[in-house]
Design goal:
The complex is a heterodimer of chains A (377) and B (318). In chain A, a hairpin with a 2-residue loop joins strand 11 and strand 12. By secondary structure, chain A is α/β, with parallel strands linked by helices. The termini of chain A are far apart. With 318 residues, chain B is of the alpha/beta class. In chain B, the strands form two sheets. An eight-stranded mixed β-sheet of chain B has the order 6-7-8-3-9-10-12-11, with helices on both faces. In chain B, helix 4 crosses helix 5. Chain B is globular. Classes of the chains: A alpha/beta (377), B alpha/beta (318). At the A-B interface, helix 8, helix 9 and helix 11 of A face helix 6, helix 7 and helix 9 of B.
Chain lengths: 377, 318
């Protein structure tokens, strides 16, 4: 399994035609004219006229993911409401950042969105197909179209495999290409993540690489099947500051080149501002605010987003004279979330009689900018 | 006279590949009530500098020299036992990176906070407990936290306990080694507020070690930028942040994504050097955009009066 020399790899006649298109979505689910994935009505424009379901590469419709915890035998299980009714639309070629503290459900959201987990309730639609409750066997085509870049590059690559084998594996699993062609695709992927010269990197083992290089391998692996959607789950939080930017620049480049949509899961609002188009802020399993980066992070309307932004300093010598807005207490239990608005026990502007009673719905207060707060204007 | 004065501090580790130049001639002063932030990428020697100041060394030390003066007294003249009795925890204490995970799961946290008093001062159990309680209250925790075990506390509460431990002996200097790196942003904000308040109330001096330039600006009066075992720039926060002198500081500041500006961050080309065989001349020269012949041959000295930087460009500029 020697990787082929670079001049052969660039020969365009060798690729495209040999790849057998395996595991396509069943024909009856993909109709000729666009139809709404939920109600079957003919589609025109950005949303279904009949039931209101928007269209996009990935549509989450009030999606829920609960985990059961059984504390005692013969007692009914309790639910951890990790994701509780999140609606979101991801369009082709855009990056949406999901930001929140640990335990807010952002990773569960990412994993459920590409059906690594099955939603407990609500709907999940991929490119006009309902994938909410499809069985694992029926999801093989989705496994090719969606990929994940995990957080920890030290844990996510097999230490016993060479980089070549790590990158070839997804192709083997999906029965793609002859050995020679697979070698070419590995080489192209290594080049596109700037691990050059690829011949040398292909034969290294993960322990020979630095953290940043390993993360590049993880990115290259996610590209092997030419996916349409990549969930990047904290792809840079384990890396050094200067390497961080280069990995994010790489993801941006890949997006522009291949038109991939990204769900960028992070706790870092500053990188979200520079590397995504839209941003969604999660708190205790719910989306509290989402919209274009230029709107949400310039004029945050939800008190939680405001506090979160205030907690992140830009380098400025005057910072040491300020007191950072702090929220009392800790994020709530997801088993027994507070009544009304999840955030009201910590909210600096909460109104008793309103915020602790009524659950706030997302309202569009600026163009494309939604906020779930009774008091935001 | 500065409270703490570090001169030509050197700490090399012995490894199979040769000696690692983790700290190579670091000098700086810390004034009373001041915070010095040491900032740099991982592996630049900032934590090793802290270990060298507190003389908490691993076994494979190859070279350890220089002077560390506390109130004009050279600590390097003390033997290990004297150092332990007179300096460590009593004059200089430290909050380690991820120290909250080092709390014992078997002992109530209150006893752990009281322990240094019993060990170092020979205090009675009751007296130690009373002072520990005071320290626990001082970091904004309720008294009943004393009787809790580590697993019963959240990450932010554990970090407060660890800060209480560092303060219980009333030292004048506290070294903060990435004190919030394992915490969430909101918890980090609370801890930073606490550190600011304690600094004011107890007139503490901090050495704040972090890789996060933004966070360093929350505490720093003076900023020291470290690269490959050396201090490359050292100056007041008012000068370093808006107008950095060293090319590395400039690039590092430019690589920070800003939350409040549309200016795109840029990555720094190249990688940090191998500290077994650091580059000749200026250690930053292989990555420096302004490199010229002299940089490759001769290690630069500090230039500048108040904001000092180690770069030959500044000699050229005059």
């Amino acid at each position: 399994m020697e990787p082929t020399p670079p001049d052969e790899a660039r020969d365009p006649t060798l690729s495209a035609e040999v790849i057998p298109e395996v595991s396509q979505p069943p024909a009856e689910i993909a109709p000729e004219g666009p139809k709404c994935a939920r109600c079957g009505a003919a589609l025109e424009g950005p949303a279904c006229a009949n039931c209101g379901l928007p269209t996009g590469v990935l549509v989450l419709d009030q999606m829920q993911k609960y985990f059961d915890v059984r504390q005692r035998l013969f007692r009914p299980a309790l639910h951890v409401k990790a994701v509780d009714g999140v609606s979101l639309v991801i369009q082709k070629g855009e990056t949406i950042a999901i930001v929140g503290e640990s335990g807010c459900g952002k990773t569960t959201l990412g994993r459920t969105a590409i059906r690594l987990l099955e939603p407990t309730g609500g709907g999940l639609y991929y490119d006009g197909r309902d994938i909410t409750h499809l069985k694992m066997k029926e999801l093989l085509w989705l496994r090719r179209k969606s990929q994940i870049v995990p957080q920890d590059p030290y844990a996510s690559v097999n230490p016993a495999f060479t980089i070549f084998k790590i990158l070839e594996e997804p192709l083997l699993v999906h029965h793609i290409g002859a050995p020679k062609e697979r070698a070419e695709r590995v080489q192209t992927a290594l080049e596109s993540v700037q691990l050059t010269p690829p011949e040398i990197f292909a034969h290294k083992f993960p322990h020979m690489l630095s953290g940043g290089q390993r993360q590049r391998v993880a990115v290259a692996r996610s590209l092997m099947l030419e996916p349409e959607l990549i969930v990047a789950d904290e792809p840079v939080s384990m890396l050094d500051a200067s390497v961080r930017i280069s990995i994010l620049e790489l993801l941006k480049k890949i997006q522009l080149e291949y038109g991939v949509s990204f769900i960028y899961i992070t706790h870092d609002l500053a990188t979200a501002r520079h590397f995504s188009n839209r941003v969604g802020i999660m708190y205790a399993g719910k989306m509290v605010e989402h919209g274009p980066v230029g709107s949400v992070l310039v004029e945050p309307l939800h008190p939680y987003t405001q506090a979160l932004m205030d907690a992140i300093p830009d380098p400025d010598p005057n910072n040491r004279y300020r007191k950072i807005t702090s929220l009392p207490g800790e994020p709530p239990s997801l088993v027994n979330p507070p009544s009304g608005c999840n955030f009201h026990p910590r909210c600096p502007i909460a109104k008793l009689g309103l915020c602790d009673v009524e659950v706030p719905l997302l309202r569009e207060l600026r163009p494309g900018h939604f906020v779930a707060c009774h008091l935001a204007e | 006279m500065p409270l703490l004065s570090v001169k030509d501090l050197v700490l090399h580790y012995r490894t199979r590949r040769g000696s690692v130049h983790a700290v190579d001639g670091v000098s700086f002063d810390l004034e009373r009530g001041q915070t010095v932030a040491l900032v740099g990428e991982s592996g630049c020697g900032k934590t090793s500098t802290a270990s060298a100041i507190l003389r908490m060394l691993p076994r494979n030390v190859a070279k350890y020299e220089g002077t560390v003066e506390l109130d004009g007294k050279n600590l390097m003249d003390l033997d290990d036992e004297e150092f332990r009795q007179q300096v460590r925890w009593r004059a200089v204490s430290i909050v380690f990176q991820g120290a909250m995970n080092a709390l014992s799961p078997m002992i109530p946290v209150g006893q752990q906070v009281a322990e240094p008093l019993i060990v170092h001062l020979g205090a009675k159990r009751e007296e130690a407990a009373a002072r520990a309680e005071e320290a626990i209250r001082g970091v904004g925790l309720p008294e009943f936290t004393m009787k809790r075990y580590a697993h019963e506390l959240s990450g932010g509460m554990k970090q407060r306990v660890v800060i209480a431990m560092a303060l219980v002996m009333k030292p004048s200097i506290v070294i903060l080694d990435e004190p919030t790196s394992a915490l969430d942003v909101m918890t980090q904000a609370n801890i930073m507020n606490l550190l600011k308040k304690l600094k004011e109330e107890e007139s503490l001096s901090y050495i704040f070690i972090t890789h996060d330039l933004g966070l360093s600006s929350e505490l720093a009066d003076v900023v020291g930028i470290m690269y490959a075992g050396e201090l490359v720039e050292f100056g007041p926060a008012e000068m370093v942040f808006p107008n950095p002198q060293h090319p590395y500081t400039q690039l590092l500041l430019h690589s920070v994504p800003r939350l409040r500006s549309d200016e795109k961050p840029d990555s720094i080309p190249g990688t940090t050097p191998d500290l077994v065989a650091p580059p000749k001349g200026c250690r930053f020269h292989p990555r420096c955009p302004y490199v010229f012949d002299k940089c490759k041959v001769e290690g630069p000295i500090f230039f500048g009066e108040v904001d000092r930087a180690r770069c030959w460009l500044l000699e050229k500029a005059g």
